[in-house]
Design brief:
By secondary structure, the protein is α+β, with helices and mostly antiparallel strands. It has eight helices and six strands. Strand 4 and strand 5 form a beta hairpin. It is elongated and about 115 Å long.
């Protein structure tokens, strides 16, 4: 069974991960772990909203994290579905991600020397924290790179003396991506708060410090997006003003050239009409 292939077990905690599983695989998971049929339906149908549902013995959550589409140069939503209870966690992603495998490898190293299996790190709830934490860190790196790219765009704007279509497209792409990221993370603040309260009903360990860390990073993401959006809007305004100034300069030059030509034509016409040249009699 594919479940066993994707199973990682540490002490009494089992972690199963699937990437875009088929319906039959989900039905096997549901049967194996007695999951409610609503959970299976939710996973099969792509959701645009983050959510958290509490059942008698487990919690079901849906998160959305950004994944960059190189071909279209935009971010798409990678849906993370998470099911966890006392000793199990199941994670399902709609798109491939290398971060899950890295987290799994790091988690093995991080916990292999623990002598007490009851410590908070040996729990599916800590694994969930690690997943969200890594995805938040990834987003902060994305925003840090975007900040550097905006500085580069600013240098490009002041180095060009003409309308640059490619530069304009880059600004539009980055503005669209920032809007997407903003709307992707807006609902997560509420989800993190609700998740902290929900986990307290299932787990007695001390995870408050970790959730505070997640809240801090989420606030940082939101602030960075707001700052980058404001910087990009200012940059677009500067670009438009510079283009208007350069366009006015070109128009003034053309107007002056037209005026000179008109004066030359006028002089020629007056001279031709009123002055008789010697060779005209021939």
């Amino acid at each position: 069974m594919k479940i066993m292939k994707n199973l990682m077990k540490i002490w009494r905690v089992s972690w199963i991960h699937f990437q875009n599983p088929k319906k039959q695989e989900l039905l096997e998971i549901g049967q194996e772990y007695d999951l409610h049929e609503i959970i299976i339906d939710d996973i099969l149908e792509f959701s645009v909203k983050d959510k958290i549902d509490t059942y008698d013995n487990h919690i079901f959550m849906v998160f959305h994290f950004p994944k960059f589409d190189e071909k279209q140069k935009r971010y798409i939503s990678n849906e993370f579905s998470v099911i966890l209870w006392k000793d199990f966690i199941i994670t399902i992603t709609s798109h491939p991600t290398t971060h899950i495998e890295r987290i799994r490898e790091e988690y093995i190293v991080e916990t292999q020397d623990l002598e007490d299996p009851e410590k908070y790190k040996i729990s599916p709830y800590y694994i969930l924290y690690k997943i969200i934490d890594v995805m938040f860190d990834k987003t902060l790196r994305i925003l840090n790179k975007s900040s550097k790219d905006i500085v580069f765009l600013e240098e490009e704007i002041f180095s060009k003396n003409w309308l640059n279509k490619k530069l304009l497209e880059e600004m539009m792409i980055r503005r669209r991506n920032l809007v997407f990221l903003k709307h992707l993370f807006i609902p997560q603040e509420e989800i993190i708060e609700e998740l902290q309260k929900t986990i307290e009903k299932f787990y007695n360990g001390q995870l408050d410090l970790y959730f505070e860390d997640l809240q801090y990073k989420l606030d940082k993401i939101d602030n960075n997006i707001s700052i980058l959006t404001e910087n990009l809007n200012s940059l677009s305004e500067i670009y438009n003003n510079l283009m208007n100034i350069r366009l006015n300069s070109v128009i003034w030059t053309l107007t002056a050239f037209t005026l000179v030509i008109w004066l030359m034509t006028l002089v020629w016409w007056v001279y031709w009409m009123n002055v008789k040249l010697p060779w005209w009699d021939y």
